[in-house]
Amino acid sequence: MSRMMFVNLPVSDLGKSIEFFSQLGFEFNPQFTDETATCMIVGESNFVMLLTREKFSSFTPGVEICDTGKTAEVLVCLSAESRAEVDALLDKVVAAGGSPYREPEDHGFMYGRAFRDLDGHIWEIMWMDTAAIQ
Questions:
Q1: Which residues contact 51 (CB under 8 A, 6 or more apart)?
Q2: Do 83 and 44 contact (CB within 8 A), yes or no?
Q3: Which terminus of the chain, N or C, has less C-beta within 10 A?
Q4: How far apart are CA 116 and CA 118, in angstroms?
Q5: Terminus-to-terminus CA distance in the chain, angstroms?
Q6: What pLDDT score was predicted for residue 17?
């Protein structure tokens, strides 16, 4: 059974987050966008809901939102079609105000880099040679 996936992330400034991810090439579903949330389209069945901290808190009553400068709540990993695409996306991240996170990982058949978005959430971009796995 195929399932849709929605990752929900709290953000401090929704407008700045939309601008940041737009600069990385992502689009947003206007049907699920208002002043408190937006639906970032990652793939055909994969989405990231960027929610204001207040909106996010309404889904997690009694639980504090973590300080991403001190703790990690999630590690989101996205695929890339090539090593060059991994590097190009990280260049866009830095130009848009994000920051690299740890050194690139090169395993020959797999190459990845990581970054922090404007709110400190950790994202990985990974290319994998699927032929080498088989």
A1: 8, 9, 10, 11, 14, 36, 37, 59
A2: no
A3: N
A4: 7
A5: 24
A6: 98
**What's the DSSP call for residue 51?**
E
**Which amino acid, one-letter code, is at 72?**
A
> pLDDT per position in the chain (134 positions), as tens?
789 999 999 999 999 999 999 999 999 999 999 999 999 999 999 999 999 999 999 999 999 999 999 998 889 999 999 999 999 999 999 999 999 999 999 999 999 999 999 999 999 999 999 888 76
User: What are the start-end ranges of the E strands in 12-56?
Assistant: 27-29, 37-43, 46-52
Domains of the chain, earliest start first: 1-61 (3.10.180.10), 72-134 (3.10.180.10)
